[in-house]
């Protein structure tokens, strides 16, 4: 595309016009290196006259910084990636840092290609994100020459990693239901093999006590329907609240209850987990749910990777970020103060 | 982070060890410029001995290519962005091209910052994507020094742009319903102000003929419920098929029909538009729907921007890419041959 080369003034042009080497021109413009004041100001005058715009790549070569970050993601639906990405970008854009998004689709070969391409472009750091805190990405990021921050994926020992505080989110849901006077609170959640499922269920059990009842299943509306059938077809007293492991399950639970003629939220309160708006807002009634604050988590990941890239000391280990209860209509209770 | 500078051998190191200027070292390694064979091979030997890895930025400075592309997006939900991004990435990753993702959230100031950051990093091209083909992004991309390809957003005159073929998708839905023997096909769709709504409605009317009936509303499940109430509460014969403008409307329609005791697909067939799997698969019964092939659209956008960056001739204008009918259970009819 001839437009580009014809309109862009390069450092080579400045050096030639000023009668100095490229290295000298570069140093003059960056106020580094040793030269006479006369030479430095001559180079700057020539650069200004030619309309030279010091470019990021040239600066990067000189400073060994590219002002780019790579975000590796293993989440094809975008449920986690997009809010995370928005937060990362928000933390970095004011610093002039741009983000490469690399979706690896659980494919080790693809992951390797993306990582090599990022290293080749000398990213200042990498944020590795997944969907599960108990699974590693299918690529080894230890011993890279750039810092790595992990988000929602298993980090190596001494890695810096960010997750949401599942246990605290779970406690918050149960406390909200108790505060509404609910006494028979059941937990309907995803597969037991997920660490976050065990974490949430453990906190639920601790908050509810001896009457705790957990139904493990899949992350689907279908499972919400099945769980309600199991609970309502059983003998004995019915639950007056259901705390669900994600919003899809909660939507299935709400639909199943409505179809049985159970009144929400008069007779039963339902809380979800995720605050996935497309699901939570379309549920009838709209879901009260736990938000993992993924955008803030992304911001924190961005801040951490920049700090590491700048050589600042960052303590390794897992950082748990707070969740927030978002009140809609599926539980009763007014907006929170 | 001292790891980086200590482990990375720079072109400066190679030049110093070989006793040549940086420019000469760079040219020697890239097989350009004029020098003796002895000098060139000495530089190469030194580079190999030091473990110098010619880096993308150095290559970029020399060739005026950065092997990066920017994807500007105005879609915060990720409904369009993620599949598009996956396609773009697929088309580019093998060429060593990485993608900057820049979410601009309809904010002109943020868009300007992202565009400046991309130009500063000398991207080889930009793909600008939105949610509506009749709205421009809130940033002017004309007269940039890099090529731009538009996807799902309004392009300037003489721009290169990609959209899905809404009219053909609409025809395909109607023909499928007719092939199942449906005779009273109604179209329930989004707001009239969207160009894609008019395009789909126009093709629907042309395919259905005199009996065509279009209900315009919002892109929501709620509107699906309202539309069914309006149709079923009216006097006269009921529809035996409803073609919906998106999957959310279709999900509302299906739920409303089930709650009225209408049997799907025995009495009424429902077709959606989008193939947004999170919605289409959870609908009971799962939705037959039109897929816009966003990933393929992304691949094509990637191929076009690379071609433009390489200086190839690309005809301006709007390219309409085909849609595909995805058959599930909401219409009856077996899988398509």
UniProtKB/TrEMBL annotation, chains A, B:
Residues 9-63 form the HTH lacI-type domain. Pfam families: LacI (PF00356), Peripla_BP_3 (PF13377). GO terms for molecular function: DNA-binding transcription factor activity; transcription cis-regulatory region binding. Coiled coil: none annotated. Keywords: DNA-binding, Repressor, Transcription, Transcription regulation. This is Transcriptional regulator, LacI family.
């Amino acid at each position: 595309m001839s437009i580009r080369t014809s309109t862009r003034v390069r450092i080579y042009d400045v050096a030639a016009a000023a009668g100095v080497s490229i290295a000298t021109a570069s140093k003059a413009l960056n106020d580094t290196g040793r030269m006479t004041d006369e030479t430095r100001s001559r180079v700057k005058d020539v650069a200004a006259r030619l309309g030279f715009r010091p470019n990021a790549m040239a600066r990067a070569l000189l400073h060994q910084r590219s002002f780019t970050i790579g975000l590796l993601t293993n989440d094809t639906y975008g449920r986690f990636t997009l809010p995370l990405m928005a937060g990362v970008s928000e933390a970095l854009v004011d610093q002039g840092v741009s983000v490469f998004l690399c979706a690896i689709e659980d494919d080790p070969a693809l992951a390797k290609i993306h990582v090599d391409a990022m290293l080749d472009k000398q990213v200042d750091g990498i944020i590795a994100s997944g969907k599960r805190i108990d699974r590693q990405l299918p690529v080894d990021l230890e011993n890279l020459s750039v810092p790595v921050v992990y988000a929602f994926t298993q980090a190596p020992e001494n890695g810096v990693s960010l997750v949401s505080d599942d246990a605290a989110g779970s406690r918050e849901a149960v406390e909200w239901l108790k505060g509404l006077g609910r006494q028979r609170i059941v937990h309907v959640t995803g597969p037991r093999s997920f660490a976050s499922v065990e974490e949430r269920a453990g906190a639920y059990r601790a908050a509810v006590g001896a009457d705790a009842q957990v139904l493990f299943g899949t992350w689907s509306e279908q499972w919400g329907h099945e769980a309600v059938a199991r609970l309502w077809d059983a003998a004995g007293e019915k639950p007056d609240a259901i705390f669900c492991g994600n919003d899809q399950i909660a939507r299935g639970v709400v639909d199943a209850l409505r179809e049985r003629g159970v009144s929400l939220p008069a007779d039963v309160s339902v809380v979800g987990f995720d605050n996935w708006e497309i699901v939570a807002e379309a549920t009838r009634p709209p879901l009260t749910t736990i938000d993992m604050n993924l955008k803030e988590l992304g911001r924190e990941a961005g801040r951490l990777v920049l700090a590491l890239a700048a050589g600042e000391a960052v303590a390794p280990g897992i950082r748990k970020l707070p969740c927030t209860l978002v009140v809609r209509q599926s539980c009763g209770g007014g907006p929170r103060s």
